[in-house]
Design brief:
The chain is globular and about 65 Å long. The two termini are about 40 Å apart. It has two domains: about 220 residues, Aspartate Aminotransferase, domain 1; about 250 residues, Aspartate Aminotransferase, domain 2 (3-Layer(aba) Sandwich), CATH 3.40.640. It has a five-stranded mixed beta sheet, sandwiched between helices. It has a three-stranded antiparallel beta sheet with strand order 8-10-9. The chain has a two-stranded parallel sheet with strand order 2-3. The longest helix has 16 residues. By secondary structure, it is of the alpha/beta class. About 50% of the residues are buried. It binds pyridoxal-5'-phosphate. Pyridoxal-5'-phosphate binds next to helix 4, helix 5 and helix 10.
Length: about 475
């Protein structure tokens, strides 16, 4: 695979850089506060980037959820929204867009992705069932387990390697899928789930060939196939970039092909089309009827599903825009640039570059910080202090404790720097890279963290921590020595 495989535009002289294929028509002012104020903000936030206030943040790279930029067409579509409890024209426009983009006839609207997971899990999982999948997502796993299911992650062994040249780390291992069916019996497999641009392993895609293979096994045993399409656009883009057979296929056709393998396609619109909301799509009337009553019960009437009509209009337009390669290439090409720049100087990042964000391997970055002192959380705090950029810890802080109160150490300690679609410019990306490089050169100054307030449930959201030594002071002193009065 070529290093710079994600750039839509090539340069003849000099470096291949991503180019913003849009212009800025409305802006939001950002604050890059002096380092002492940033240090105070992270201390007040308990060294937890979730507890920062955006007034103190320069580049907010926490997540791509609900933070992608909307297009002019999306915003203008909101003005024609048809307010109605039942039968809104806005819903029919969204339904039409989904039929066109995903090729599924029946559309059930929901208020966001996890609501789709609730409904699918309630409708199709019975106690004791297993659900094989490429990798879990946090909300997916919870809903499946609440309904008595057990998730089985059957990725290939290389999927969790930090440095890899495998183009499709999101693939399901077919041998493992066959073994699951043999061991549990097809009737105890609720369905097989594939997640596009596998979120928690670094936004890594799967291939069409893998979908074909999974589909063949599923069909042989009469098992339903469910596709989590929250990050489907980027996965389709990587298929075009990395799977020879599809190099000349339009994104629109790749999307339709991907969805054609699945009996049910569901998505979070917070990711796929830059608005709130979500949906469940299928061509089977029988499957639709098993879910429909739950939509009315949990979400709202069939033509709004907990969304506002304005969001529904913007979602319809955003879905169609997802088929546009110049739109969908934006986030992957900036991520590709950041990952390549950091990888070139030996900074440990997940390769190949994926969707969603640039993922730094905190254990490789801070080998002197033991995992019990939360290296990914420490790195997130240190990066915020030296740059004002907010990333998200995806490591042991995001994990839980066992029954004896000991931390269950995460498989990987990642600092995720999300690149929401069309939000940041190249110069902002270069600023981030510069500060990460400086931090790497001064990495021995970064120490660990410990909990001072630890909630029992989902501790990473509201938990407060403190440094294990006065390392932030030393880091700030070195920053001032090197950067002078610069922000
Ligand atoms: C975000 C996400 C979800 C959940 O969607 P919400 O809209 O946040 O509820 C489900 N699956 C994947 C792959 C996601 O990235």
């Amino acid at each position: 695979m070529k290093q710079n495989d994600s750039n839509a535009i090539k340069f003849m002289y000099g470096e291949n850089i991503p180019v913003e294929l849009h212009k800025v028509r409305m802006v939001q002012k950002l604050n890059l506060k002096p380092i002492d104020e940033r240090a105070q903000a992270i201390e007040e936030g308990g060294y937890n980037t979730f507890l920062l206030n955006t007034k103190d943040i320069f580049l907010d790279m926490l997540t791509d959820s609900g933070t992608n930029a909307m297009s002019d067409n999306q915003i203008s579509s909101m003005l024609r929204a048809d307010d109605a409890y039942a039968g809104s024209q806005s819903f029919y426009r969204m339904e039409e867009a989904l039929r066109e983009v995903f090729g599924k006839h029946y559309v059930l609207p929901v208020h966001q992705g996890r609501a789709a997971e609730n409904i699918i899990s309630q409708a199709f999982i019975k106690k004791g069932d297993v659900i094989p999948m490429n990798y879990h997502f946090t909300t997916t796993k919870e809903h499946m387990e609440i309904n008595g299911g057990k998730i089985l992650e059957i990725y290939a062994d290389h999927a969790l390697e930090i440095k890899s040249s495998h183009p499709f780390k999101g693939n399901i291992d077919i041998d493992k899928l066959n073994k699951v069916i043999e061991e549990y019996g097809a009737k105890n497999v609720a369905f097989v789930r594939m997640e596009a641009s596998t979120n928690l392993i670094g936004g890594q895609p799967f291939s069409i060939q893998n979908m074909r293979d999974v589909k063949a096994v599923a069909d042989k045993h009469g098992i339903m196939f469910v596709l989590d399409a929250s990050l489907i656009g980027e996965n389709a883009y990587f298929i075009k970039q990395r799977e020879e057979e599809f190099k000349d296929t339009p994104i629109k056709d790749i999307l339709l092909l991907m969805c054609s393998f699945a009996d049910i396609v569901y998505f979070s619109s917070r990711k796929v089309s830059s608005t709130r909301g979500g949906g469940i799509c299928t061509n089977s009337k029988e499957l639709m009827l098993k879910m429909r009553d739950l939509v009315v019960l949990y979400e709202g009437f069939m033509t709004y599903g907990g969304m506002s009509v304005r969001e529904i209009e913007a979602m319809a337009v955003g879905l169609i825009e997802t088929t546009d390669e110049t739109v969908i290439s934006q986030s992957p090409s900036f991520i590709n640039y950041a990952v390549t720049q950091l990888d070139n100087v030996g900074i440990p990042v997940i390769t190949p570059p994926g969707a969603l964000g640039c993922h730094i391997d905190a254990m490789g970055f801070l080998p002197h910080v033991p995992q019990s002192e939360y290296p990914a959380g420490a790195l997130a705090s240190a990066l915020y202090i030296v740059s004002g950029c907010r990333g998200m810890e995806r490591g042991t802080i995001s994990s839980v404790r066992d029954e004896n109160g000991n931390d269950i150490l995460a498989d990987v300690e990642l600092l995720r720097l999300a690149f929401p679609r069309r939000v940041f410019t190249l110069s902002q990306t270069m600023f981030l890279i510069d500060r990460v490089k400086w931090l790497y050169d001064n990495r021995e100054l970064i120490g660990g963290l410990k909990f001072i307030e630890e909630p029992k449930v989902l501790r990473f959201f509201m938990g407060r921590l403190a440094p294990t030594s006065n390392w932030p002071e030393k880091l700030i002193a070195k920053f001032k020595a090197d950067f002078g009065d610069s922000l």
